[in-house]
Amino acid sequence: MLNLGKSQLINLAMIVALGAIAIVGHQLSPLLLPKADVTGTAEPGCDLQQKACAAILPQGVRLELSITPRPIPFLQALRVEVAVSGVDARKVEVDFAGESMNMGFNRVVLAATGRGSHAGEASLPVCVSGGMTWVATVMVETDRQRFAVPFRFDTGH
User: In angstroms, what CA-CA distances link 119 with 24, 64, 78, 102, 134?
Assistant: First the structure.
């Protein structure tokens, strides 16, 4: 058996703990940053501050995102609606992230409201710099694939 001193045991315990944290983090990373099978792009020039925006994906899949009220405010309840056509969506989520600043985990799971429509409520945290470019990534999960479409919009400018 190895004859280790107290400081060596502490170092070994810290290495084992860091290894365990790395393994758990790797296993849980798909929950925080799910991988998409198909990534799309929003229609050019669309402004979520003015109207709903759409994206056309391969295989005839169409997504449309609407956020109200407009203009989109900070720290107030937002109605988030996603219409999906061309595929049966099992789960629809919208993840809000600051484009240039980490604003924490801010994802909402939308409830099916019928005929490919999904809706829910979210809110945006206030940014200390005043203005913020946000990325609202719509994630749609089907029985076979996961689609993701980022929609960019500005607030507080």
Answer: 32, 12, 10, 25, 19
Same domain flag for 20 and 53: no
Count the neighbouring beta carbons within 10 Å of the beta carbon of residue 58: 9
User: What is the rounded CA–CA span in Å between residue 103 and residue 83?
Assistant: 26
123 within 8 A of 105, measured Cβ to Cβ = no
Residues 79 and 125 in one domain: yes
User: Which tokens sit at 24?
Assistant: 């758990």
**Span 52-84, pLDDT tens digits:** 999 998 888 999 999 999 999 888 999 999 999
Angstrom distance (rounded) from CA 10 to CA 60 = 58
Domain span including residue 73 = 38-155
Ordered strands of the 117-122 beta sheet: 38-39, 146-155, 132-141, 91-98, 107-114, 117-122, 78-85, 62-68, 53-56
Write out pLDDT tens, residues 27-51: 444 444 457 777 888 999 999 999 9
